[in-house]
Amino acid sequence: MTHANLMNNYFNPNSVYTEEDFRRRFQIRHHVFKRLLHDVQQVNSYIRQKRDRAGRPGFSPHQKVTLALRMMAYGSPTNSIDKTHGMSESTCSDTLEQFCDTIVQVYKDEYLRKPNQEDLNRLLRKAEDRGFPGIIVSLDCILWDWKNCPTR
């Protein structure tokens, strides 16, 4: 039932929610989700749907990837998301771990590397467009004196 609701809400041709709703909810574009879904299934059999010991279909790849992305996007702990997705806490944890490990394995050469000059130029342009010329580092405010900071 959870899989059917997920598909009706976000993935079927006449889904309940729009592309913009999807992006706001999952912090990722729909076409990027589809690429991730395809890529992680190719590499990791855990993400693929299997049958349980009774022969019933297990959780779908859509459910597993959705769960992992929602946990990361919102920092949701497993005990708050398990009921929503119908998975046990341990399955939620395992799914997130498998997903993250697979993402690193699949995309590390393309995305998890030091930036080259082209990347740096793109980042500088993007920062300048946003009003921060010459900035490459994160604006995490660690160098600012903040009187309400709990670790001040």
- Largest sheet entry: none
Rg over CA atoms = 19 Å
Specify the number of helices: 7
* Helix and strand run: HHHHHHH
Total count of domains = 2
Q: How many angstroms does the end-to-end distance come to?
A: 49 Å
Shape descriptor: globular
Q: Helical residue percent?
A: 55-70%
Residue share in β-strands: under 5%
DSSP E strands, number: 0
The pLDDT mean sits at 84
Structural class category:
mainly alpha
Low-confidence stretches: none
SSE layout and pairings?
Elements: H1 2-11, H2 19-26, H3 30-43, H4 61-74, H5 78-85, H6 89-111, H7 117-129
Helix pairs in contact: 3-6, 4-6, 5-6
Describe this structure in words.
The protein has 152 residues and is mainly α. It has 7 helices and no strands. Helix 4 crosses helix 6. The radius of gyration is 19 Å and the shape is globular.
